Amino acid sequence: MFCTWGAQHLVPLFLLLSCALLPGQCHLYNNQYSGDKVIRVFPKNEKEANELKNMYQQLQVDLWQPSSIRHIGKDTVTDVHTSGNSSQVLLTYLTKAKIQHKILVNNVQLMLEAQQVFRPRRKRRSLSRYDYNEYHPLHE
């Protein structure tokens, strides 16, 4: 049996090797957070705070700060993580309602991947090669 290697074999092989050799370049979490945003919102009054509470519940956003929707009030800085689709709805709503906001993280996936590149790789330890006496003398 004779096997010929063509482009259809090289592309998957290249992707596999690039992920093995350059782990920081592969998509973490299966690209789950691609397009997700972190948005900071500044409600100026109780009316805006109540509107935000309702909007957050409808969109089912991930509230980062404060710890609970109950704590959102006038002048409470609010940070939310939204999916790509929800972020567009929320940003449109905030702009139309003239509620002050800013985007803290434009793409959560890219931020996670950038952090992974700079994280030092830890060596795996093996129990089979661990020598307890090397670190702990017998008289301890």
Automatic annotation (TrEMBL):
GO molecular function terms listed in the Swiss-Prot or TrEMBL record: metal ion binding
Pfam families: Propep_M14
UniProt keyword annotations, A-Z: Metal-binding, Secreted, Signal, Zinc, Zymogen
Coiled coil: none
Primary residence: secreted
UniProt keyword Cytoplasm, yes or no: no
Key word Ribosomal protein present: no
Domain of life of the organism encoding this protein: Eukaryota
Cleaved signal peptide residues: 1-26
Location of the Carboxypeptidase activation peptide domain: 39-115
Gene3D superfamilies for the chain: Metallocarboxypeptidase-like
Protein location: Secreted
A cellular-component GO term for this protein: extracellular region
Family annotation (InterPro entries): M14A-like_propep, M14A_act_pep
Name recorded for this polypeptide: Carboxypeptidase activation peptide domain-containing protein
